Amino acid sequence: MQTDTPPPAKVGKIIAVWGASGSPGKTTIAVGLANELAEAGKTVTLIDLDLEASSTGVLLGLGDSPGGIAAAARLAGHSRFDSEQLHRLATPVSSGRHSFKLLGGLVAAERWAEIAPDRAEEVILVAAENAEFVVIDLGSSLEANLRDVSTGLDRNKVTKQTLAMADQIITVCLADPVGISRYLRAIDQLVELRPGGQIFCVVNRMRASVLGSSAKQQVAETLGRMAQITVDCFIPDDPAAADFAMRQAVPISHAKRTSLARMAIGVLTKTLVLGERSQLDRRLAKLG
């Protein structure tokens, strides 16, 4: 007797956004990336898995939600997290004519042990069955052997596990001497997790006032010489656009259309993530 075999679940691309400690701007990049993908007509879920310092909800003016990733993880622990629960817990975020969904982060960082690695993985996989792209904002630390006494859970296991399972990793380096130094120290740990993986380097907040008129060249040469890293995208420092986004609680992509930071995030999305040719390609070398 012939039986109908259900089609395999549609699995979206998982994109992890990570950066070294010191606020390099990874949340701004993650939110901007989710927004740009939505603007391109893609279905997108943004997950705040920064168990150290969750900030997507605050950045988007949503405050601290009691649901989000904590509620999703609890349901996953009882094998009850599914598409219906995802849509119930995720908050729609308007993006012009489109929108993306946000699964907000922890209200309090000390509750990190509630997000066990297997539960986080289940939440990510369900999200990937329901969206073309899952963008994940991650914590910075990859240090090993930091464990919760009562549960034995590794403090940074969720971050490391998510980086290992991601289809693409966007690493964010802050463009000043301290940010570059921290990035170089941390990137070795990431490469150990994902040797040969698809890892992109985005240098954020490029400004000549810190590194001089040849700032881009200095950063590119330093990362290339010290760690054989090629910079894939420079995001110029744009305080006016950043302040507007913060004041209005919107993605930086909602700033004025001539914002260099907005244009650079658009290039990042089209070329690195969507793999499309962009009319802004030639401008990329001039940014920063």
Please explain how this structure is put together:
This protein is an alpha/beta fold. The chain is 41% helix and 17% strand. It has 12 helices and 8 strands. Strands 3-4-2-5-1-6-7-8 form an 8-stranded mixed beta sheet, sandwiched between helices. Helix 3 packs across helix 5 and helix 7 packs parallel to helix 9. The protein is globular, with a radius of gyration of 19 Å. The relative contact order is 0.17.
- How much β-strand is present in the residues? 15-25%
- Give the count of helical stretches: 12
The number of strands is: 8
The biggest sheet amounts to:
8 strands, mixed
The largest beta-sheet arranges its strands as 3-4-2-5-1-6-7-8
Helix coverage percent:
40-55%
**Oligomeric state, counting identical vs distinct chains:** single chain
Taking all Cα atoms into account, the compactness measure Rg is: 19 Å
Give the class from helix and strand content and strand pairing: alpha/beta
Estimate the global geometry from the Cα principal axes. Answer: globular
Low-confidence stretches: none
| Overall mean confidence score, pLDDT | 87
- N-to-C CA distance: 65 Å
Please write the string of helix (H) and strand (E) elements.
EHEHHHEEHEHEHEHHEHHH
